[in-house]
Amino acid sequence: MYAAERQREILHRTRQAGRVDVVSLAEDIGVTMETIRRDLTVLERAGALRRVYGGAIAVERLSVEPALAARDEVMTTEKERIAKAALAELPAGGSIIIDAGSTTRRLVQVLPVDLELTVVVNSPPLATVLATRSNVNVIMLGGRVRGRTLATVGDWAMRPLGRLRVDVAFIGTNGCSAEAGLTTPDPAEAAVKEAMIKAAGRSVVLLDHTKIGNDYVARFAALADVSVLITDTGLAAELAAELAAEGPEVIRV
Question: 213 near 242, Cβ under 8 Å?
Fold first, then answer.
């Protein structure tokens, strides 16, 4: 098993159980305890879990929201596949919203250079990248910038969304479950995400499979409120079917 595969398995087990220990992981995966300790260090530096004596605990148990830079280093291959799959959901010209986030950032990077689009964003870094492209008309939502996610929130972001109508919104999320729907740790950011979905004819949620099964304090949509969920093949087919039963098309790539 390669290091990346091993670390995905460790992260999956940590999020399922809430806590894992080094000895059990080493025995189950078939590597040394020192290898597991190195993997835990890598995952902690990425903000994916928290080291404790003898093992690690899921950051969700600590109510910790990893910073954008940390999240950007986790599940990178999967996020790139998800972003490329999302291109099939673009309108043939027209207008879209791209939410702030590590997976949506990759969508910005792969947007076609020959497709005329109006793109609404709530992320100053994404606006900066898009503004250099001659085929894109950028609308930047104002408001307070959250340092942890670099997303704009508050009334200055919400009010323009209430007057906009776009073809498709591409939304990120911290958590997703059949019971709770789509959730995120910050209520102000949840309010903006909810307004983005309401402003769009269709909404597409981009999330790697480690987000599924996690619930956070602020709910911004039921699964029935969104059109498509695009995730990776790390999501079991049975769980994908359970999510699809709530309304959205579920695409695994």
Answer: no
The DSSP-derived string for 89-108 is GS-SSEEEEE-SSHHHHHHH
- Per the CB < 8 A criterion, the answer to whether 7 and 43 are in contact is yes
DSSP single-letter state for residue 143: S
Say how many CA atoms lie within 13 Å of 74 toward its Cβ: 28
Dist CA 142 CA 139 (whole Å): 10
Which tokens is 98 given? 């791209």
Burial class (CB in 10 A: 0-12, 13-18, 19+), 53: exposed
Residues whose CB falls within 8 Å of the CB of residue 233, separated by 6 or more in sequence, listed in order: 209, 252, 253
- Nearest partner of 182 among 168, 167, 197, judged by Cα: 197
pTM of the model: 0.77
Start-to-end CA span in the chain (Å): 21
Letter for the amino acid at 118? T
- Judge contact between 96 and 206, C-beta under 8 A: no
CB atoms within 10 A of CB 122: 30
Residues listed for the chain: 253
pLDDT per position as a tens digit, 201-242: 999 999 998 888 888 889 999 999 999 999 999 888 999 999
